[in-house]
Amino acid sequence: MTKFEEMGFTPGILKSIQELGFEEPMAVQEKVIPLMLGDDCDIIALAQTGTGKTAAFGLPLVQATDTATGRTQALILCPTRELCIQITGDLSDFARHTGRLNILAVYGGSSIENQIRGLKKGAHIIVATPGRLIDLIGRGAVDLSGVNTVILDEADEMLNMGFLDSINEILEDVPDNKRTLLFSATMSQEIAAIARNYMNDPTEITIGVKNSSAENISHGYYLVHAKDKYKVLKRIADFEPDIYAIIFCRTRRETQEIASKLINDGYNADALHGDLSQAQRDNVMQKFRTRNIQLLVATDVAARGLDVDDLTHVINFSLPDDPEVYTHRCGRTGRAGKTGISVSLVHLREKQDLHKIERLLKKSFKGLSIPTGSEICSKQLFNWVNKLETAVPDHKEIEKFLPDIRSKLAGLDREELLKRVVSLEFDKFLDDYRHGEDLIEPVKEKDRASGKSSTAFSPGQSNANYKRLFINLGKSDGFYPEQLIELVNSNTKGRKIPIGKIDLLKNFSFFEVETDHTTSLITALNKTRFMNRRVAVEVAQEKTVQLGQGKYPAKKTTNWSGKRNGGKKIKMKHRSFSGN
Asked: Is 331 in contact with 307 (CB distance < 8 Å)?
């Protein structure tokens, strides 16, 4: 006998359970179902999204509903149209073998006239969003006088969306002797107030730790400069070839901006926010559910009700203003027993917000290293090689083209052919990262206070085939890797100069170049200007300097003659860095 059979379900319900593939009840189901079937107590269940809550209340609710009468006996309130539709579908599946059980969903964004007609036909169970139900009550279109069970699903989400007054009004309209079940991921003061006002000595059930996330979700963060957030987001996406993620932003504007950037950069992405029409919203959500979209950039409100079980990542591009909102965000991954990853992009001013979330969840988040260009290219390459190795070609379709292909490629040996295929596949990543800077973590406040630095410059440890050069241009000059590469390319016509590691600082920079090109490149660049400023390049000094520990870069005066200005030599001062 299975555990579901031991719970006392009827043959019809058990048949539905078997057809749905439920083998063992999940934790919340084990605790809620016996209470609903055996007692008449009110229940508060604190559990994350994706833990099986719908079946926990839906299976016993379907069994307890009397189909011999046409009156509405149960009311389920939930925050969004999407969740309303999902719950209705699940209840219909549970009730497949139980006779004529009428379940009606009522929500905004759809014809209220059709919903009124459905109510007139009779609904044993109504699944509703608060706003639309208030509208129907105001029109006298719904009769809640026979309701004996009220279920508030994702109650904290409804309160976050501003439905408190509507919930109070609805609960005042149902009989006092009804049973109330409240499901929530967090226990806020507002939730406690609803329990005090409308519930009778409720039994509280907590799955996991109160106000915590699922144990199978890992939590990490990247400490980044604010201006580098988008660059880091791209690196996360590139480092995870099979990523399937929701990227959370604070505002509609930021959401659309980030989604547009991702789309323009060739990523399979789209935006979900409140400025979309219902038809646009449905279209985006459907494409995301079917994985036609790999990265969904969304606001918290817009993502509510989006039910996807296989997300690999939740990415917090911006931390939420309310720490409890983080619980809802991360609860969208690691569902149905799967593992999930929640990562946050955090700049120094947001560290306190991160600490608040850690305290709420009673978890310490892991600081993560930003993937380097080399790591990304390696990860993408071997992911592609694995797919190539396991690909099953349709021999019949391609067989007729093979003779011409063999003839065309006959002049290439195996090694050259392999190089060309890989080059075609990875031009985008190589272009993005072969000369790209390695993004540097900002100096942490505690390190700044203690005199330590989180950044080290180590010219003495450069590749033996490369020489480290100093250039008198830095970030304050608007000088970044693309500007350096353009400066080199435009002054070395017809030659391809290999560039290695680039270290950008505020007023000057270092970069590596193949040793054989050092002298000619220094000569070429020392004849140029950048933004009306004379360029000075020389071999970097090899002295070790420890930052922030009382040892500062030694000043060096260099006579530089390059182009003359009125026949005078120009003296330039710079500091030469190296590190531990």
From this structure: no
CATH of 3-206, one of 3.60.21.10, 3.40.50.300, 3.40.1390.10, 3.40.50.1980: 3.40.50.300
Contacts of residue 22, Cβ cutoff 8 Å, sequence gap at least 6: 4, 55
- List, for residues 287-308, the tens digit of each pLDDT value: 998 899 999 999 987 787 677 7
If 0-12 CB within 10 Å is exposed, 13-18 middle and 19+ buried, where does residue 540 land?
A: buried
Match domain 445-575 to its CATH number in 3.30.70.330, 3.60.10.10, 2.40.160.40, 3.10.20.740. 3.30.70.330
Structure confidence at residue 464 (pLDDT): 59
Pairing of the two strands 203-206 and 43-46 = parallel
- Which parts of the chain sit beneath pLDDT 70? 1, 49-50, 208-215, 305, 335-337, 394-395, 425-464, 494-495, 542-580
Q: Which helix (H) or strand (E) holds 244?
A: none
User: Are residues 208 and 324 in contact, defined by beta-carbon separation less than 8 angstroms?
Assistant: no
End-to-end Cα spacing for the chain: 66
Tokens 């660049």 -> residue: 525
pLDDT in the model for residue 442: 66
**Domain formed by 217-371, architecture:** 3-Layer(aba) Sandwich (3.40)
Q: Is the pTM above the cut of 0.70?
A: no
Task: Classify 362 in phi/psi space as left (phi over 0), alpha (psi -120 to 50) or beta.
Answer: left
- Ranges of each domain in the chain: 3-206, 217-371, 374-429, 445-575
CA angle in degrees (0–180, nearest 5) for 424-429-432: 125
**Rg of the chain in Å (alpha carbons):** 31
